[in-house]
Amino acid sequence: MMERKKLKVIRTPHKLRRDLTSLGGHLNDIRRAGLVFNIAPICHNLSSPKNACIVSDASTKAIAGTLYFESKWSYWTLRINSLPLEVREKILKVPACASANDICQLELLAVLISLALLAQRDKAPMIWVLCDNMGVVHILNKIYSGQDQLAWLLQRAVPFLLKFVPNLVPYYISSKQNFLADGLSRETLEDLPSDWMRCSPPLQWLCAEGASKQQRVALVHKGPTQETLAEFVASAHAVITRQLYGTAAKFFSSFVAPEVPFPLRVPFVQAFIYAMTKTGLYKYNTILTYTKSLRSANSSFGYTLSEADKFCINLALKAARRKSDGSLAQKRALQKEELVLMATISEVPDSNIPLEMLQVASLVTVFGLFRARETLALRYKDVSFGKDGKLMVDIVRSKTDQFGEGAQVIIGCVSNDPSSCANKCCPSHRLQRWLESVPVSHGNNLIFADLSYNQWRNDLKSIISYIAPSVSTPQPNDVGVHSLRRTGAQLMWAAGYSLFHIQEYGRWKSLALMDYLKGVTKGLSTSYAAAMLYTQASTKTIGNATVTQVPASTASSAPSTGAYPMIGLGDTADAGSTSNNESVMSSPIKKGVRVEPAKPAPAKQKQGKGANTRSG
Q: Which stretches of sequence are listed as region Disordered (predicted)?
């Protein structure tokens, strides 16, 4: 109107100005993407990115819609003849062929499908619905229609439509302004921005009550795109795994270009391994990880490698390992003295993040046997504290929890009297006091939002280097964030807990736990010979457990260097016999006693003629 009357300024009611401001923000976003809706004079202020904008249209050939939500665009199209017959019979005058008389029903169906797509995502504070059919705009304003076909569509959409009603703002736009959705519905629009995501239109809500499972499956199956199916299959892997596969595939694709990377061909993979090895820029474990990722990606694309191909690739990996340092890099565990000093120091030069936050995050990771990214993903709603000083942590998702079942880890207080615990190494009370000192935040916010993985790693190295002169620290720089989980596992072993306890508490799904305990027994190797000669063990069954016990009189005759060894995690028993992560730690469990599950009693054999018996 301003353009037509050549006006520079107009006065509008406050409510209309507010609505036009929010609407104009979405239209500006559309304009930035290179798709111009000719409503330039509305406003230039961007609205909240959490608001959603839906634009839809219909023709006698197809229906289509676009959805803008959380700063991302998605779109969908659906041919009329792809609609289930029961739906066409309900909304079309002639089910076999749509006509101009059916446009209102099809326009409403297009809007409802877009709303059903939005219902699968997070709730939007405000939903703008742009439509070039005035009748549909009136229906959406009232959520009512007296026509049977339109009323049937509204009834089917009730489960998701009602929750949108308070935030639903329908607007009429001209057909000229609706050229984008119009082009999609007529299948005449081809060039769309590359970052727009094509979606499968959700149709299961159109099922009548009491519809069979087969009918519902048939509706869901209508029109899924290859991109949708690929995204569905890829969701079987964790997000980090998908990112790793994507990085490896992109790297390999650039290496073999202009050749096609998949299916994998042995000469290309061997050349890839050779090039990474010769540059000297990649460690062997990185080369191994990339190669495994390529093989997994190859399998996900439906290709297989023969046994001969696998053998040739493994030979290349062995050659790469021989040419490199020949070992898989692993960060060492912290000594107990290092852990205590790290938790108690008051300042560290050149620290990039608050020391208190780093100390709390590290203690929770060590005593909870957390992976670093599990700690970084903790939110305020995930932690709670008990009266007896225990800390309860809900792990929503982890590396080995691909199905998102979650787990709760309970961390106890390190003091005998939790009510008066002042130990700076206590993860429970240290976290509780720190949370009380920081501003109260929303439950969905991250606890360690200001801590990144790289900052944590760099500052942890700085702390260990800073306290190195105070302890006999081997290789002060050979630590990382993953050293904390390794430290917790080895501390539990040093305390006398069985592998079963450690595996279940640390949520290991495989024997990968053994890699975390590698070298942990070296500190006790000097006592093996004497124990072999002088120590005799006896076993007896108590309840459902078999107890192996060393008599005190026998055990005392052998030289003792401590009950359980610990790789760099305890007081040094003999400075001359311990070196580079070899030390011994006393245990709260009795010396010489370790409890294992009872084994079933062997079946008795019948003694008869011909039985082969032998006295022991």
A: 572-616
In 3D space, the residue among 118, 101, 317, 322 whose CA is nearest the CA of residue 201 turns out to be: 118
| C-alpha span between 527 and 589 (Å, rounded) | 19
- C-alpha distances out from residue 355 to 7, 344, 426, Å: 61, 10, 16
Length of the chain: 616
Name the DSSP class of 468.
G
| DSSP 3-state of 561 | coil
Helices (H) and strands (E) in the chain, counts: 24, 14
Which portions of the chain are predicted below pLDDT 50? 29-47, 552-616
CA distance 57 to 186: 9
Residue (of 430, 459, 427, 445) closest to 358 by Cα position: 459
Q: Are residues 126 and 183 in the same domain?
A: yes
Q: What strands, in cross-sheet order, belong to the sheet with 197-198?
A: 168-172, 127-131, 52-58, 62-69, 72-79, 197-198
The DSSP secondary structure of 198-229, one letter per residue, reads E-PPP-GGGSPTT--HHHHHHHHHSS--HHHH
Cα separation values, 209 from 86, 215, 388, 583, Å: 13, 11, 52, 70
Range of the structural domain that residue 404 is part of: 336-513
515 within 8 A of 574, measured Cβ to Cβ: no
Kindly report the CATH number assigned to the domain that includes residue 151.
3.30.420.10
For residue 84 the two structure tokens come to: 């289930």
Query: What pTM was estimated for this model as a whole?
Result: 0.52
**One domain, residues 290 and 205:** no
Residue 385: both structure tokens together: 């504290």
Residue 5 lies in a domain: no
Tally of structural domains, the chain: 4
Is residue 560 helix, strand or coil?
coil
Give the three-class secondary structure for 55.
strand
For residues 181 and 57, the answer to whether their CB atoms sit within 8 Å is yes
Structure confidence at residue 235 (pLDDT) = 74
The reply to whether 328 falls in a domain is no
Q: Cβ contacts of residue 147 below 8 Å, gap of 6+?
A: none
Shared domain check, 370 and 315: no
